[in-house]
Amino acid sequence: MEKNKNFILGIYDDEDILLSAIKKVRQSGVKIQEVYSPFPVHGIDEALGYKRTRLPIAAFMFGMLGCTLALTMQIWMSGADWPMIIGGKDFVSLPPFVPVTFELTVLLSALGMVATFMIVSDLKPYKKPRLMDIRITDDKHVMAIDLANNELEKEDIKKIVKETSAEEINDKNF
Amino acid sequence: MAIPLDEVVVKEEKQNLEYVSVIREPLVTGGKTVHDVTEDICRQVEGKPTLSWMLAMAMSLGTLGIGAYCVFMLLWEGIGVWGLNKTVGWAWDITNFVWWVGIGHAGTLISAILLLFRQKWRMSINRAAEAMTIFAVICAAMFPGLHMGRIWMAFWVLPLPNTFGSLWVNFNSPLLWDVFAISTYFTVSLVFWYIGLIPDFASIRDRAKNKISQVVYGALSFGWDGAAKTWMRYESVALILAGLATPLVLSVHTIVSFDFATSVIPGWHTTIFPPYFVAGAIFSGFAMVLTLMIITRKTFKLEDYITIGHIELMNIVIIITGSIVGIAYITEFFIAWYSGVEAEQYAFLNRMTGPYWWAYWTMMTCNVISPQLFWFRKIRTNIAATFILSIVVNIGMWFERFVIIVTSLHRDYLPSSWAMFYPTIYDVGVYVFTFGLFGTAFLLFTKFFPVINMAEVKSIIKTSSRKAS
User: Fold this and answer.
1) Strands (E), B136-202
2) Which residues from A are below 8 Å from B165, CB to CB?
């Protein structure tokens, strides 16, 4: 990503025009680097051909880890390491362990998934974003086309983007 | 890797057909555009604090200061400064704890359960409601901590290796379950809230004029650039967090109710406590959201985002949960009579006619009768009436916990140990402290954070905003 320096940006103002533009641009054989939006646009991942994220799997795995850790901890602490007689109750019985097990399952699942999300999306404090256009976080959708990834000439790509009723077509050089 | 383009065409055409019904009330009024959303919400973050904000802040800090003195005295002298006695060992402290935790239920309910039910009206209230949740849970957690007397030993509630021969915590105790439930709830709510804030912090960062804002919001926004791939993952994360937070929010007050329900005290020993407490928590939480949102929308001129429609929907939730709470009160009474257990029957009759009858009837009036007024459309769409009733509900919910805790304890098994509970200035003062803390935190939030989730509201502008005619 860092090597890519020269982009053509198609700027859109309406999410439906953007979706049909993505379709038209891809049909013309132009590769889109990425689309940037101020809010989540439904159907954009299918339009761009993105595979579904596997974050739910991460959440499930972390949840299983939390569940296992919680049960192991409780059984070991109150059953093996230092059993205490409390009202003559069993040292190890599952019903009283349910609340703590449930809470730790949820906790690890949530924290693990969010941490995974941060890592795969490269979100971290003090990271300087590579903003294509300052208006992305306000009200404009930006379709970024990397010139290095496309064999077509710059002017041809611009023509294709123009036909998709983009509001503006800009060059962006990093 | 890539999905074939034909499929894309079909799917997209389907999507174009899905539009919100034209007969629905718009969620955003005033013909707002996407850019207007950014302008309207960022305004109070970027501008100078208003006079009313500064006055409110001064009041909160004053309250915090008075309360801090009481907290200091409590820590210095020990919990003997409270009005607790041998018979009534839990009173204001645990009442306040349960009350604050209950209030802390609305935020995550709005953002998680309403997300799963695809209720789009949640979008303009979820940010502030979640903030309220987080601050309320902090206030709640103070009470069990202070009740320990030696708050610096509070870490003893955690299963940590120690020098007492690895003496571990008691996993059979509902008080320990509370530790796990509340800390998990706090952490997950905080993470959920923060994930939602990241794109909005990026909006503020990109508009920031001065260096400090650029640096601070730059750090807070985690380098957000609005890429479609990140948005896709973000939505997936939000959906799963909602799925996790939904049982979590229900579990928290269930476990709080176990503090009472697993005991053998007449009046506490009730199997309906978990659903009854959860309904009560949602009831009081929504009331607090209404109290706060009515002030916020007025102060920051957000009437186009938090509309009468939003207030009406929240009032409907209040009727439903208030009615569940009312039915629970009646069921408790019926079961106490039907069980034939004399101690149980006495506990309930004593609630109604004993020395704390006034607390009981305050609770009944505020929680069972007052929300029924919302059946009238005129009342539930009236802002002044809603504001007053939202406060009445929270007074009632405080008395509910007081009635449950104190009336069940004050007449022990032995009539010789019967006693009354009289709060001291320190009981009141520590409660006042949490109000100061909550107010200060909420005011800081409204000044420095976007009070409405801009990115989510922007996503419904096209379908749910009435165009200016």
Assistant:
1) none
2) 82
